[in-house]
Write a structure and sequence with these properties.
InterPro entries (chains A, B): Aminotransferase_I/II_large, HTH_trans_reg/aminotransferase, PyrdxlP-dep_Trfase, PyrdxlP-dep_Trfase_major, PyrdxlP-dep_Trfase_small, Tscrpt_reg_HTH_GntR, WH-like_DNA-bd_sf, WH_DNA-bd_sf
Largest interface: A-B, 58 and 58 residues
Keywords (chains A, B): Aminotransferase, DNA-binding, Pyridoxal phosphate, Transcription, Transcription regulation, Transferase
Number of domains of chain A: 3
Largest sheet of chain A: 9 strands, mixed
GO molecular function (chains A, B): DNA binding; DNA-binding transcription factor activity; pyridoxal phosphate binding; transaminase activity
Distance between the termini of chain A: 75 Å
Family (chains A, B): In the C-terminal section; belongs to the class-I pyridoxal-phosphate-dependent aminotransferase family.
Shape of chain A: globular
Structural class of chain A: alpha/beta
CATH topology of the largest domain in chain A: Aspartate Aminotransferase, domain 2
Number of helices of chain A: 17
Helix content of chain A: 40-55%
Protein name (chains A, B): Transcriptional regulator, GntR family with aminotransferase domain
Radius of gyration of chain A: 23 Å
Number of strands of chain A: 15
CATH superfamily of the largest domain in chain A: Type I PLP-dependent aspartate aminotransferase-like (Major domain)
Oligomer: homodimer
Strand content of chain A: 5-15%
Amino acid sequence: MKRYERYAEEIAELIRSGTLRPGERLPSVRQASASRRISPATVFEAYYRLEARGLIQARPRSGYYVAEPVAARAAEPATASPSPRTTEVEISELVFDVLGSTRRPDVVPLGSAFPSPALFPLDALARTLTPAMRRLDAGRIVEELTTGSEALRRQIGLRYVVAGTAVDARELVVTDGAMEALNLCLQAVTRPGDLVAVESPTFYAALQALERLQLRAVEVATHPRHGIEVDSLAEVLQRHPVKACWFMPSFQNPLGSLMPEANKRALVELLARHGVPLIEDDVYGELHFGARRPPPAKAFDRDGLVMHCSSFSKCLAPGYRVGWTAAGRYAQAVQRLKLMTTLTTAMPSQEALAAYLQHGGYDRHLRQLRQALADSQARMLAALARHFPAGTRVTRPEGGYFLWVELPDGVDALLLQRQAAAHDIGLAPGHLFSADRRFARCLRLNYGHPADARVEPALRTLGRLVHEQRRPPEPLPRAP
Amino acid sequence: MKRYERYAEEIAELIRSGTLRPGERLPSVRQASASRRISPATVFEAYYRLEARGLIQARPRSGYYVAEPVAARAAEPATASPSPRTTEVEISELVFDVLGSTRRPDVVPLGSAFPSPALFPLDALARTLTPAMRRLDAGRIVEELTTGSEALRRQIGLRYVVAGTAVDARELVVTDGAMEALNLCLQAVTRPGDLVAVESPTFYAALQALERLQLRAVEVATHPRHGIEVDSLAEVLQRHPVKACWFMPSFQNPLGSLMPEANKRALVELLARHGVPLIEDDVYGELHFGARRPPPAKAFDRDGLVMHCSSFSKCLAPGYRVGWTAAGRYAQAVQRLKLMTTLTTAMPSQEALAAYLQHGGYDRHLRQLRQALADSQARMLAALARHFPAGTRVTRPEGGYFLWVELPDGVDALLLQRQAAAHDIGLAPGHLFSADRRFARCLRLNYGHPADARVEPALRTLGRLVHEQRRPPEPLPRAP
């Protein structure tokens, strides 16, 4: 971490913890430079970054001040109250209709599930491909069938150490992206008709997976900032024969919520008491804006019940299709399902990633990526405050690249999605994020395209469309 | 095709068709050179290749003669009579036990499902990886999600033209190997509890797929040389509510059978009358020893009922994990299942294969590969004739890399597999190839490792073990 990054992070931490409060003045560049023994340029760079993230504001001829939190500008959504009943899942058609129609380069990708590919070191990765495969002994292509590349598995093991935990290498199964890991885990612990607990709102791909395997869903109250409410889950477990949970404890899609460590621990302990496995979707864990990678729930697992799933698709190598699971006591079952369906993960992708991870550009890349996303979030929050009507509520995640927006009464997100599509603007309407299509005035917006100049005008257009939906239609001229 | 290959192929065709009969003398090198206006070296090279394939024999100071067909040395197995009943499938445990235990480099790979990686242009492929990915516009990584690389899809389309047919590009879904294609197709056309018709014997992965999706199997009589018996299938369709068929019309695994074109056409017409989809596993189609690639059953499909599945894993690029299906009327359903499970196939693998296929080493590589496998088959057939007891029956496939061996009465293949494993020799016992474990004295042997010097001694050891199983045990010394 560079010096200015370290200083910026310290101040951000003071703001997050409330030690520095909105409106308070920061030390001047000269004061900070003297007291910290760092150059004025370093202080200035740190303040510049903090300002870009919306955490502090420069006042001309006066200095830098802690900004009003975004929450004061646009309130956060409240925790939704999910239905206490279990639900058949039938969402796939809607997901394909809505998202398939706007996956074109001329559409502003606010509805996309991916960050911009321009954020990734694709050229550096490409350069590793040929040498990595030429080094590979041909025999290993067949021998490493079952478990994935030895070199990559070692590097994945190291990432757990960076995250402050460790997993047994024998638990690891390399998969074709996290999506395959999640699906194999789900199939390993359920049979058709079983009940699975999900968040509320839920990532639509989890709902699609349930639908594909003919499983039923029960939704658990999920706080927009702190994620799954463990007490609510305890009630659900009392009331229903839940066979598995599929949760995203860090930077949940779509809320961006991050479960505090204590809650993750409590979650794992609760599930251990019930003997219920947790499928932990942790694909955004590396995209934290705070100083430290949040530990996965897996870090608190003593019983092998947590099946931790992640990938490199959102933080390093989109299109390489490399994910994995550390599947605890279900590792062999998952491995066998993999052998029966896709056999093994593409070796060029595995070997190239192993070589890239080993030679060490990864942490520098991640710092740049996190900064770019944090800056981009601040800009989108500011744009929403400018263009969207009062009463709009917005999350302010500490990682990832999604905002969850709750529009004022009277606005329908699916209608808005269709109107936006006519302007070549994509968005993900709330309807996709619940088996009972409850989030009808919510949107998920992607801020992972910082260099896309079309984003700001698109938000202005969206704001106008929202305003128009709220205005009552003009009365028709009366028939004569 | 080189001149000597063309000449060798002409003579092979004359032998296959019976125009040249066993024991007949071929024209001398000088005669053939004069009459065909080709150099003596070309004729000699052609004869040399034919001799290596076991089709002709040199007699010292006399010339070349058509060899006795292998069938005269070891008879072919008869068509098995499958059970007329439908069967629950429970085979996976056995498959994992038997095959997992011998997937080590120190085991002679006679039980392997793969040919030797040394047979493939892995270095040439590796060289295409970096330039192919550097050329790729980053945006396409996300846009081409649904359907696979445009460039690769075009090359796959061309392979259908080479096979004498054509498919609509909109039918194509690129998958993570053929295994994924087959599994997605199966899931697209069935629900748990449905009945699927398979060959007898059947590739164990088909049985595993049925088991995983909780489907029932009904086996159809399959001729060791001509594949599915269409009349038997007609009876099965009359008697049972078959929802889909999973067949390998070309070089079936494990029999190596090749359905004649007329039978393929009759099969497709029969299924069209019943409205039953065919999942066509055609992964060995490119590995033909005859002059022409056999057309897939898909070539006769007018109703979009044939889901043709293949891959590059067995003929070009093991470990790259690129397969596809041309799924006819089910293409959209398959594409959606793919989006829900593995999303898309690794771009480095797709782009490298597209570049390799485009720049044209593929046909030359395939000719060398087919020749190497044909030669290797002839050598293994000769070794079996030397080492195995009379009464052993062996198939003589016109492509692929498997022999199916029926041992004399009194030999148990699973016992033999265990004894062989103790000698570090792998083999696939017949028990794996049927839901009712009927092929208890059959073996599948892999001849796809021509450079492996351990194969011949391993066959000698296997022959000895077979002889020993047939010898009655020595009487125990009587108790005093």
